C-alpha cells in the first residue's frame, strides 16, 4: 500500500536556516536542505558532526531549534506528525524481559492498532525485518543486530510515511547490512516511504539516492553520489568528502564550529 499524504506533494522534509543549541554550544548552524518524498537519503558525516541532533530536531525531540523545519508539510514536532514518523535511535528501545512478539504487540497497542488487527500487523513487520523465526525469543537473549531489527520492526508497525533511522546498520555483518538496505529500498519503492538514514560509514553512501554530507554542524553537500564524485573529481564518496572538508577548511578555517569532544550529560 502506498503512503498517501494529506499534505500534498511537497518535500518530505525541508530545512532552512536551521540551528540547534546544545549544552550552551551551537551544534547545528544554518542547515538547509530538502528531502524528496519516497526517496532514500543518507546523512553522512564523522562522529559528533550533528547527525543525531538533526534527526532529533526532525522528529520533534530536540530543544532550542531555530529556523524553519517542515516535516510532511507541518512544522517539526507537531502532534499530528507523531503517528506519521518512525524514529529508530542508536540504542534499541525494547523490553528485554518480553519476547519479540510481546514487545511488538505492546507497541502496537500503544499505537492504537485494534486488537484483532495486531497479530497480522506484528507478523508483517516481523517478516519485513526477517525475524519471524525469533518471534518467541526473549528480547534480552538476542544479539545486538537482532535487537536493532526489533526496534526497526517497532518503527514499521504504524506504517510511517517518514522513517528516520540513526545508524541502523552499525555493528551488523555484511549480509545483514545488505538485507536491511534492500528492505529500505523496498519500503521506498513499494510503499512510498521516505527514509533518512544516518551513517558514518562512507561505503554505505552508494546505496542512497541522495546524500547529505555533514561536518561540524553544517551541511557540506547535498547531492547524488555520482554527482558528488563527478564534481570533486574523486573515485569514492570518502575521497569526495575529504575533498569537500579541505575546501571547507580553506573557505571557513578549521575552527568554524565545534568538532566532537563535547561531553554528553
Ligand atoms: N546531551 C548533549 N548535551 C550537550 N551536547 C551534546 C549532547 N549530545 C550531543 N552533544 C554534542 O552535540 C554535537 C553533535 O552530536 P550528535 O550526537 O548529534 O553527533 P553525531 O554526528 O550523531 O555523532 P555520532 O555519529 O557519534 O552519533 C557534538 O558536539 C556532541 O558533543
From TrEMBL:
Highest taxon of the lineage: Bacteria
InterPro entries: AAA+_ATPase (IPR003593), ABC_transporter-like_ATP-bd (IPR003439), ABC_transporter-like_CS (IPR017871), P-loop_NTPase (IPR027417)
Ranges where the record places region Disordered: 246-265
Protein's name in the database: ABC transporter ATP-binding protein
Domain ABC transporter: 13-241
UniProt GO molecular function: ATP binding
Keywords annotated in UniProt: ATP-binding, Nucleotide-binding
Lineage: Bacteria, Bacillati, Actinomycetota, Actinomycetes, Kitasatosporales
Amino acid at each position: 500500500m502506498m503512503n498517501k499524504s494529506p499534505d500534498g506533494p511537497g518535500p518530505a522534509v525541508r530545512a532552512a536556516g536551521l540551528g540547534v543549541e546544545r549544552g550552551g554550544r551551537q551544534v547545528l548552524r544554518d542547515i538547509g536542505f530538502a528531502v524528496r518524498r519516497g526517496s532514500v537519503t543518507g546523512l553522512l558525516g564523522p562522529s559528533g558532526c550533528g547527525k543525531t541532533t538533526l534527526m532529533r530536531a526532525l522528529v520533534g525531540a530536540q530543544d532550542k531549534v531555530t529556523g524553519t523545519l517542515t516535516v510532511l508539510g507541518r512544522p517539526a514536532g507537531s502532534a499530528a506528525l507523531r503517528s506519521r514518523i518512525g524514529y529508530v535511535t542508536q540504542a534499541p528501545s525494547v523490553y528485554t524481559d518480553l519476547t519479540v512478539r510481546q514487545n511488538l504487540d505492546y507497541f502496537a497497542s500503544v499505537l492504537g492498532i485494534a486488537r484483532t488487527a495486531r497479530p497480522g500487523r506484528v507478523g508483517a513487520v516481523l517478516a519485513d525485518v526477517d525475524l519471524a523465526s525469533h518471534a518467541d525469543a526473549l528480547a534480552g537473549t538476542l544479539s545486538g543486530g537482532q535487537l536493532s531489527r526489533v526496534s526497526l520492526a517497532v518503527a514499521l508497525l504504524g506504517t510511517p510515511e517518514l522513517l528516520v533511522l540513526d545508524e541502523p546498520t552499525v555493528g551488523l555483518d555484511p549480509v545483514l547490512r545488505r538485507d536491511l538496505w534492500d528492505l529500505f529500498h523496498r519500503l521506498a519503492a513499494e510503499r512510498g516511504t521516505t527514509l533518512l538514514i544516518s551513517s558514518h560509514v562512507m561505503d554505505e553512501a552508494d546505496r542512497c539516492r541522495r546524500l547529505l554530507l555533514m561536518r561540524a554542524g553544517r551541511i557540506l553537500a547535498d547531492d547524488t553520489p555520482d554527482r558528488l564524485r563527478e564534481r570533486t573529481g574523486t573515485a569514492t564518496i570518502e575521497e569526495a568528502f575529504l575533498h569537500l572538508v579541505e575546501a571547507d577548511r580553506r573557505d571557513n578555517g578549521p575552527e568554524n564550529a565545534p568538532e566532537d569532544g563535547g561531553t554528553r550529560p
